[in-house]
User: Which sequence fits this backbone?
């Protein structure tokens, strides 16, 4: 692995000590580009959320970073660095060394994410042995038990000998997290880790991830469609639409200062405690455009209540939004020519709805 | 998807050639049995494309006649066996539960015998020959059809359109013929394609071990038996060509059967993908 | 040859409670017994009741009525059919398979003497089929592309192959009348070699046990062509099944999770995909056995292989119903037994189906 630092940019100061950085990441399946230039920087111990509707490319970003795209998919552009080292996605051996030791993954559905015919213990041990070939059997077993305890599975010795079908959904997700953190990775990518779980278990798993960040100092990239979860858990939120990050905003500024109409629409579809019930939830008309045939200009324009004719003319500018709630060094950027108006409207009338189409 | 199209295309071309050969066989019946000792064991060449056998009969003509025998008996046995299987499936699907249970057990018992051996036993019981071999093969085909069609028929009875027909007071036989049989059509055709190849193989196997078509008949299996002796003394063509025809026939039918599900799935997928695209470009509804 | 090309059966369900498992085992066993009972009825009707008078077949057309009546009484043919059926089942179960109609030989003794030859052939064919299928299917699933296409076409062709014709072609190409690499249709051993001391009856095994490498290699050379002819259909069937199973498993999310640990694609495929794909294929053991039995009937006579398949073909030519009866019913019993053993094996090998005593 080369140790070259990514090309200088306006963020190079931060990417020096980033746990994970991607600049201009592009992914294509055949001729269809599904991720179109995504920038993502994660500092050690930071919790970054990636949100968007299904099909916006967020899970593809997760798999692309791991180098585990399904056949037919390929990283076609961009520079990715993990723990200071640049990643070469054509070097399978180097990728194998990186996966599980520096960058690891927790997957969507805990019910199908474990090999059904192997014990939980052997599946955790596989991660340990892969990166520590000289570890003794006894040491592997002890470490496996320790990991299960760390993720809150009681009676680890007995549980290690059991098979996935003997674990509940929540317990399986804990086991998967144990596998992911087995080698103290710098970054944990969690792709919809709570979607398949019931509400109580969801809360427990999120709490566990939170505590692991505190104890191990691991950075977490949380990929989800649940903007409410992201706002509670993450330090920073990247909102994706049609393969691009349309807004990057500190969580603290999300509710009051979201500057992209799409983010506002996502927030509007969220039930908020304390809001009068008569104030109906809003929804976003239409569906995301097919990636094979994106509209010209801003991809969100056809569904946007703020859209103007010029929105469909050219790529929208990146607008830096001054947010009062942010600390220094945090960036709030929205890819929308009317971003500042959107912010202003939300601050003036406290409404989460956009202004009616006129 | 491209692979499937190539596969289906290959199957159709091969089958077309075989049908032509079978049609030629109808006109070559005389030639196929004409003994000409003076021209015995002639190797393949311009006069006799596939050579001649120990009695001077033209191997090409015999293979052609064999093609018409194989295709006709294969399709015939599957049609008869499939028809009987369909009747049993309807009785199972629409009849009383106890009868269904008994018949299913019986079908399983019949299916416990390897097809060739069951066909052989039946053929021997009625005396050897092509016709009795056909009876034997039909017996092996019936349970295969009955088992798969029965499951479909059971599913059909829970479909709303069948229940609706029942509520308006249609009699059970009427229901079976007008509503359940059309429902089974697809499965029936898939099963037919999947079984013809096997049936042709079993029939030639029976003839090969001497219980099916008997020697003067230009049946492929019987011809291979005849060719075995000559093969060891160097006249390979007598046994090899009929076997090649048999192989090509079975593979062509299996290729076709194998590509049916994929072609169907592709067609369904095409129908499905055309829809959301239209929705996506539709004007967005205005919020309330 | 009853093999059809559908892929693995339904995914195993979650492990039931202990009581449920016992109950399931009991109903399963009852079902097996019912099937066997009905199979014996089918075999009795077809081979005993329909073909007419076995006494006439035994004594021949020229015998006097007295002789005929004597044989009829001796065989119990004047008893009511249900009594004859019970006797038939009893005789089959106690291995008294009667006497050859044509030469009076004890069918059980003839079968027992010929069984090792068929067993040896079938075992090697099974080995060729399984090893070939696992290697080809794994490579096809792992590499995909042109190799997978070729493997698919070859296995489709293999599934439609008449074994007896392949036997002929193999002899012509590789045997004594072709390249001469392997012996032609000349039985189990070259004539000047003595069979090895009888331990298992399998010449390859006995040859090794007796420390006679020449006998082993000669027996193997004689085995090669018939075993390959026999292996083609089950091999092609297993290749298709295992390729489809592996392609299914390879798409599972857990394979991505294994890769995310840093395990290479090949190691993940070998350890996880292959393991999961092999499990359900165990339940097709009955089909594979059936194809080996029919194959031995079709192939043995081509190679002059002294097994029970050859006994059957000779029995057919002599209209010898006692031999055919025993063989046909035996094949059904073996098929049902193989399926039952396979079900039990899957239940033991698959942790989701394994019964756990004690722990909840």
Assistant:
């Amino acid at each position: 692995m080369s140790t070259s630092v990514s090309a200088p940019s306006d963020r190079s100061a931060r990417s020096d000590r980033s746990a994970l950085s991607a600049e201009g990441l592009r992914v294509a399946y055949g001729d269809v580009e599904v991720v179109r230039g995504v920038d993502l920087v994660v500092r050690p111990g930071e919790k970054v959320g990636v949100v968007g509707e299904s099909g916006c490319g967020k899970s593809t970003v997760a798999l692309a970073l791991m180098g585990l795209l399904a056949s037919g998919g390929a990283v076609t552009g961009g520079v990715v660095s993990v723990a200071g080292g640049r990643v070469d996605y054509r070097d399978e051996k180097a990728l194998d060394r990186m996966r599980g030791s520096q960058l690891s993954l927790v997957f969507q559905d805990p019910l199908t994410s474990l090999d059904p015919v192997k014990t939980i213990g052997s599946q955790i041990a596989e991660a340990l042995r892969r990166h520590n070939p000289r570890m003794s059997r006894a040491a592997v077993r002890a470490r496996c038990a320790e990991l299960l305890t760390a993720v809150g599975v009681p009676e680890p010795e007995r549980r290690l000998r059991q098979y996935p079908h003997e674990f509940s959904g929540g317990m399986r997700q804990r086991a998967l997290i144990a596998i992911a953190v087995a080698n103290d990775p710098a970054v944990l990518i969690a792709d919809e880790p709570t979607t398949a779980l019931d509400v109580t278990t969801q809360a427990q798993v999120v709490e566990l991830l939170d505590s692991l960040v505190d104890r191990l100092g691991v950075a977490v990239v949380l990929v989800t469609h649940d903007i409410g979860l992201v706002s509670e858990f993450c330090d920073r939120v990247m909102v994706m639409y049609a393969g691009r990050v349309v807004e990057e905003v500190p969580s603290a500024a999300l509710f009051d200062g979201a500057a992209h109409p799409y983010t506002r629409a996502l927030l509007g579809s969220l039930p908020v405690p304390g809001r009068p019930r008569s104030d109906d939830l809003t929804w976003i008309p239409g569906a995301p455009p097919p990636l094979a045939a994106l509209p010209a200009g801003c991809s969100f324009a056809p569904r946007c209540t703020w859209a103007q004719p010029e929105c469909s003319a050219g790529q929208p500018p990146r607008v830096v939004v001054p947010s009062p709630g942010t600390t220094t060094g945090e960036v709030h950027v929205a890819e929308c020519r009317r971003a500042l108006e959107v912010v202003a409207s939300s601050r003036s009338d406290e409404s989460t709805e956009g202004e009616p189409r006129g | 998807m491209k692979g499937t199209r190539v596969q289906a295309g290959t199957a159709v071309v091969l089958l077309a050639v075989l049908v032509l050969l079978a049609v030629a066989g109808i006109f070559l019946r005389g030639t196929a049995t004409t003994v000409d000792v003076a021209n015995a064991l002639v190797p393949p060449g311009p006069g006799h494309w596939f050579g001649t056998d120990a009695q001077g009969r033209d191997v090409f003509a015999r293979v052609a006649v064999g093609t018409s025998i194989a295709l006709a008996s294969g399709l015939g046995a599957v049609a008869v066996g499939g028809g009987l299987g369909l009747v049993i499936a309807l009785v199972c699907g629409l009849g009383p539960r106890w009868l269904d249970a008994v018949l299913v057990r019986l079908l399983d018992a019949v299916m416990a015998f390897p097809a060739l051996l069951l066909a052989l036993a039946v053929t021997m019981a009625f005396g050897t020959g092509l016709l009795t071999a056909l009876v034997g093969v039909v017996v092996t085909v019936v349970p295969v059809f009955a088992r798969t069609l029965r499951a479909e028929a059971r599913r059909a009875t829970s479909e709303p359109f069948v229940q609706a027909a029942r509520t308006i007071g249609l009699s059970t036989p009427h229901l079976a013929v007008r509503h359940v049989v059309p429902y089974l059509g697809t499965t029936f055709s898939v099963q037919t394609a999947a079984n013809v190849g096997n049936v042709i193989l079993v029939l030639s196997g029976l003839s090969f071990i001497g219980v099916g078509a008997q020697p003067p008949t230009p049946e492929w299996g019987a011809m291979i038996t005849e060719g075995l002796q000559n093969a060891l003394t160097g006249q390979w063509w007598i046994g090899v060509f009929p076997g090649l025809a048999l192989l090509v026939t079975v593979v062509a039918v299996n290729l076709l059967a194998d590509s049916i599900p994929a072609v169907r799935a592709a067609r369904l997928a095409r129908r499905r993908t055309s829809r959301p695209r239209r929705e996506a470009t539709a004007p967005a509804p205005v919020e309330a | 040859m009853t093999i059809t090309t559908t892929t693995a059966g339904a995914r195993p369900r979650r492990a039931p409670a202990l009581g449920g498992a016992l109950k399931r085992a009991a109903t399963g066993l009852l079902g097996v017994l019912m099937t066997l009972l009905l199979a014996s009825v089918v075999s009795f009707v077809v081979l005993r009741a329909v073909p007419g008078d076995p006494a006439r077949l035994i004594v021949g057309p020229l015998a006097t009525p007295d002789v005929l009546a004597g044989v009829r009484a001796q065989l119990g043919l004047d008893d009511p059919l249900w009594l004859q059926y019970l006797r038939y089942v009893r005789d089959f179960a106690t291995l008294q398979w009667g006497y050859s109609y044509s030469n009076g030989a004890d069918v059980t003794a003839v079968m027992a003497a010929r069984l090792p030859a068929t067993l040896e052939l079938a075992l090697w064919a099974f080995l060729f089929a399984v090893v070939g299928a696992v290697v080809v299917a794994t490579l096809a699933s792992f590499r995909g592309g042109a190799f997978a296409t070729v493997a698919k076409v070859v296995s489709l062709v293999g599934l439609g192959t008449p074994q007896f014709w392949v036997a002929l072609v193999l002899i012509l190409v590789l045997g004594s009348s072709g390249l001469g690499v392997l012996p032609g249709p000349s039985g189990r051993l070259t004539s000047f070699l003595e069979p090895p001391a009888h331990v298992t009856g399998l010449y390859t095994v006995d040859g090794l046990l007796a420390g006679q490498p020449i006998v082993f290699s000669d027996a193997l050379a004689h085995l090669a062509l018939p075993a390959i002819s026999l292996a083609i259909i089950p091999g092609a069937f297993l290749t298709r099944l295992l390729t489809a199973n592996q392609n299914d498993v390879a798409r599972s999310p857990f394979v991505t999770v294994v890769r995310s640990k840093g395990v290479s694609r090949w190691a993940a495929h070998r350890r996880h995909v292959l393991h999961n794909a092999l499990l359900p294929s165990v339940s097709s053991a009955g089909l594979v056995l059936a194809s080996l039995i029919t194959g031995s009937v079709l192939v043995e006579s081509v190679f002059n292989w002294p097994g029970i398949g050859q006994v059957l073909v000779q029995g057919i030519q002599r209209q010898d119903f006692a031999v055919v009866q025993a063989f046909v019913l035996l094949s059904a019993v073996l098929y049902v037994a193989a399926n039952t053993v396979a079900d039990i094996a899957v239940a033991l090998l698959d942790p989701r189906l394994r019964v756990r005593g004690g722990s909840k």
Remarks:
- The CA atoms of residues 164 and 298 of chain C lie 6 Å apart.
- Chain C touches chain A at residues 14-15, 144, 252-254, 256-265, 271-272, 275-276, 279, 350-352 (CB under 8 Å).
- The two ends of chain C are 44 Å apart (CA to CA).
- Confidence is low (pLDDT under 50) at residues 1-16 of chain C.
